[in-house]
Amino acid sequence: MPPWPLPPLPNWLRRYWLRRDWGWLHLAVGGGGPALFLVHGLGGSGHDFHAMARILARDFTVLIPDLPGFGYSDKPDLPYSPRLFARELAAAAGELGLSRAFWLGHSMGGQVVLTQAVERPDLVRALVGVCPSGGHARADWLQKLLLALFTKPGGHLRLYHPALLVLFVRWCYGDPSHPSRAELTSRVRAQWDSLEGPLLERSFIRSAKALLAEPIWPRLDGLEAPVLLVGGRRDRIISQRDLGRLLGHLPPDTPYELLPCGHLPVYTMPQELARITTRFLRSV
């Protein structure tokens, strides 16, 4: 657990700490009804879901973890990857006595919940992938070159400047003028500039490399759980071609929603995202 006081959660959420063999997993829980895990993306945290989770909590018990290496969870020396995250969340579900649940994942979290559905179908009633990663081809020569140029072995950047974070967050927004961008930028910068910054950098780089090396689409044939995919029309991170590759390996009747946004509908369109998620999960 972080050695400094944590900011309070909204009053409709409760904070829990789950003990794992690598450290502590931070989990926020609220609402009532069927269990719904909300899994954040690369470099994100459970905070990303607070706006839409408040709406979802009218119909579901929302469980919002910080993945190992991110947010308020501990950041140990682990081989971070979607498979590791899926295993840790499966263990958390077991510890909480949940035999089956709904799952929603954003970006990297989308790849995590798809991995969960492949490896532990017994835990997944249905899932929603929001701008999910995992539909790309394996890392090409240019991506490998960029990783070699900008990262060191072990999971650190060769060059870091706060301006890079500002540009990355801006790139994720289809509408950079959205009021949530300043708050998100400030929060991300504060964590990267804190004592945990080097640990967060390590988990970020290792996770990014694993995402590129382990696309999920080749494993989706025969997936049993109902899936809803949600994309952003102005998404600069996850292309519609990659989403199409995911859809091509899911059942032909898999629903797909394309929203008028960038990569962060969890911030820019929380009401609409909560609405289509609730409608889909109720239908199954």
Largest sheet: 8 strands, mixed
Q: What separation lies between the terminal Cα atoms?
A: 37 Å
- The amount of helix comes to 25-40%
Question: What is the CATH-assigned architecture?
Answer: 3-Layer(aba) Sandwich
**Approximate strand percentage:** 15-25%
Assign an overall shape: globular
Structural class by sheet pairing and helices: alpha/beta
Overall tally of structural domains: 1
Task: Please give the count of helices.
Answer: 10
CATH fold-level assignment? Rossmann fold
Estimate the mean pLDDT confidence. Answer: 93
The strands making up the biggest β-sheet line up spatially as 1-2-4-3-5-6-9-10
By CATH, the superfamily comes out as Alpha/Beta hydrolase fold, catalytic domain
CA-atom Rg in angstroms: 17 Å
For the secondary structure, the number of strands is 10
Uncertain regions spanning at least 5 consecutive residues: none
At the first level of CATH, the class is: Alpha Beta
Order of helices and strands: EEEHEHEHEHEEHHHEHEHH
